[in-house]
Amino acid sequence: MNRDTLVAILDLARWAPSGDNTQPWRFEIVDEHLIRVHGFDTRDHVLYDFDGHPSHIAHGALLETIGIAASGFGLASQWTISSQGDERHPVYEVRLAADPAVVRDPLFDCIEARTVQRRPMKTSPLTDTQRQALIDAAGDGFGVQWFESWSERRRVARLLWDSAKLRLTCPEAYPVHKAVIEWHARYSKDRIPEQAVGVNPATARLMQWVMQSWGRVQFFNRYLLGTVAPRIELDLLPGLFCAAHLLLRPRRPPAALADWIELGMAVQRVWLTATRQGLHLQPQMTPVIFRWYARAGRHFSSDPALLEQARQLSDDFERVAGSGPQDDFGFFARVGTSPQPHSRSVRHELAALMTG
Ligand SMILES: Cc1cc2nc3c(=O)[nH]c(=O)nc-3n(C[C@H](O)[C@H](O)[C@H](O)COP(=O)(O)O)c2cc1C
């Protein structure tokens, strides 16, 4: 094993997904057996990064991807959390060792191909093989709940519609939305390119103009039904047009950082398996995140009406899922077949992600 192998592993691993393509990690090659990952989160300026958990999920997805990438070089990998209790800046140590028993993971070839599909997909149902592969990929620690029939998808689409209203009328979410889209772009290294957002070019131009100031957004929302066009394109139609929605439900409540990492590992296995099965996937995390806030009794906005809406949304979500306030929801996504997206987020160069 030499340094070049570790560089090649990290060059693949940087394709792991993260919320809004934030890539909340920096890499250090300590020696030829040890990679140190310096994680961080964005909770201080990103409303959606509730207690840093979406970033922690991304860290898990990254660690899983390092393991899969390492298998392609005949290496076994093992990670530990080496920082003590600092969940804002967790440090992970990944030890790699040559192991003749290691076989190349079949998901290896999907690492770079995996991407988000935010546009409507075909409604052809999942095959039994596809469904079972996704359940197996989630592993023993997570149950997979499916919403597949037209009426189940309609109920989820309604939930996404309501969640989007909350998202688009929340003043605290506005700076996040404004910062995350790279306008006119097909590829973006550090954000989401406009063409991968899922709206048509006319809606994109309108959104770009409106999003220049919160005053414009408010005016538009109040007098011109400003949330309707983006919600139809970004939430309602994609919610209806897919094969299924899936909800990963942890079998025990996530309590420690390591539990969120495990969830992220499962997310990445599910997503890569979807790719391997010829499917596309889109996470739809905002209803889950608003529910985390509501059920923890935590404020995300100075507007009390929005907090009430988040509580209402959580009640609706639980009705749709047939569960109660104490049940844990980990990851929510839609899957289906569709053409390869023409646009996607790319990544920072590896050199820009290296530290130390
Ligand atoms: C924890 C997490 C939450 C995410 N939430 C959403 C979401 O709510 N909606 C969405 O369209 N994409 C979501 N994504 C997808 C990211 O935006 C996407 O992975 C990132 O921009 C990189 O793009 P790529 O996956 O195409 O490489 C999420 C990803 C992660 C890891």
Task: Please specify the SSE layout and strand pairing.
Layout lengths: L2 H11 L11 E7 L2 E6 L13 H19 L3 E7 L9 E8 L29 H11 L3 E6 L2 H20 L4 H7 E2 L4 E2 L3 E2 H4 L3 H10 L3 H10 L4 H13 L3 E7 L6 H20 L3 E4 L2 H10 L8 H18 L9 E6 L7 E2 L4 H4 L3
Parallel strand pairs: 6-8, 7-12
Antiparallel strand pairs: 1-2, 2-4, 3-4, 5-9, 9-11, 10-11
Gap between N and C termini: 20 Å
Look up the CATH topology of the largest domain.
NADH Oxidase
The structural class is: alpha+beta
Radius of gyration: 20 Å
Number of strands: 12
Task: Please explain how this structure is put together.
This protein folds into two domains: 3-112 and 349-353, NADH Oxidase (3-Layer(aba) Sandwich), CATH 3.40.109; 128-345, NADH Oxidase (3-Layer(aba) Sandwich). It has a four-stranded antiparallel beta sheet, with helices on one face. It is built from 13 helices and twelve strands. It is globular and about 65 Å long. It has 356 residues and is of the alpha+beta class. A hairpin with a 2-residue loop joins strand 1 (25-31) and strand 2. It has helices spanning 3-13, 53-71, 128-138, 150-169, 174-180, 194-197, 201-210, 214-223, 228-240, 257-276, 286-295, 304-321, 350-353, and strands at residues 25-31, 34-39, 75-81, 91-98, 142-147, 181-182, 187-188, 192-193, 244-250, 280-283, 331-336, 344-345. Helix 2 packs across helix 10, helix 3 runs antiparallel to helix 10 and helix 11 packs across helix 12. Flavin mononucleotide is lined by residues 17-21, 54, 57-58, 61, 115-116, 118, 192, 282-286, 344-345.
